[in-house]
Amino acid sequence: MALEKVDEPAIKSGDSEKEKTDWVGEAKSIGLLLLAVLAFHSLVAKPFYIPSVSMMPGLLVGDRLIVSKYSYGWSWVSPTFHILPRMEGRLFGSLPERGDIVILTPKDQSSDYIKRVIGLPGDTLELRGGQVFLNGIAVDQEAQPDLELPIDANAPCGSREFPGLRGTDAAGNTICSLPILRETLPNGVSYDIIDLGPQGTDDVAPVIIPEGHVYLLGDNRDLSADSRVANPLGLNGTIPWENIGGRAEFITFSLDGTTSLNPVSWFTSFRSGRAGTSLRPDRDDSVSE
Question: Is 115 a catalytic residue?
Answer without folding.
Answer: yes
